[in-house]
Design goal:
Blueprint (H helix, E strand, L loop, with lengths): L4 E3 L1 H30 L8 H25 L1 E3 L13 E7 L2 E7 L11 H5 L5 E2 L4 H6 L7 E5 L5 E10 L4
Parallel strand pairs: 1-2, 4-5
Antiparallel strand pairs: 3-4, 3-7, 6-7
Helix pairs in contact: 1-2
């Protein structure tokens, strides 16, 4: 099993609600669509059937992912912004001299929130504590400088310039 995913109670509840909706309502609805499409005849040329099966696959994949997240979730309060880099906080730094802000934690905490689109559009970066940058900055204090080797082999220097809470 992977490392625990840190979730607030609100994030856990939001993901549990989504899982319940998918299992109790959406699963039944998609099975009805598939059954109706089957009744139309030849499945080889039945676009409705193939679309419904594809939708079912995506939904089952999401159900599996939610079950994994919730099974490994560690529920707690958001970490305090006390100048030390921890999971669940926004980190401001100079990355090879360029200013950068990112959220250190799990992408899953943003699912279903107003920030999900910002992440998908690339306006908000999220790094796992297990990522190369996450692993090197976690536990560091504002003013600390560290470096790491990126997956492409380049040496990256990081100076922590700020740590802040994140308002969901």
């Amino acid at each position: 099993m992977s490392d625990p995913i840190l979730l607030t109670q609100a994030a856990y509840d939001r993901l549990m609600e989504e899982l319940t909706q998918l299992i109790t309502v959406e699963r039944h609805a998609i099975s009805l669509k598939i059954q109706e499409a089957r009744e139309e005849g030849d499945l080889k040329e039945n676009g409705g059937y193939h679309a419904a099966k594809e939708e079912q696959g995506k939904m089952e994949s999401r159900i599996n992912r939610l079950e994994e997240i919730l099974a490994s979730a560690e529920i707690g309060e958001a970490n305090p912004a006390d100048g030390i880099v921890k999971q669940g906080l926004m980190v401001s730094c100079k990355l090879n001299g360029l200013s950068k802000d990112f959220y250190l934690g799990s992408h899953e905490v943003f699912e279903g929130t107003k920030f999900e689109e910002q992440i998908e559009d690339g306006d908000l970066d999220v790094y796992s504590p297990d990522s190369p940058i996450g692993a090197v900055v976690i536990g560091k204090k504002v003013g600390d400088s560290v470096s790491f080797t990126a997956p492409n082999g380049k040496e990256i220097s990081v100076e922590i310039t700020g740590v802040a809470g994140f308002d969901f």
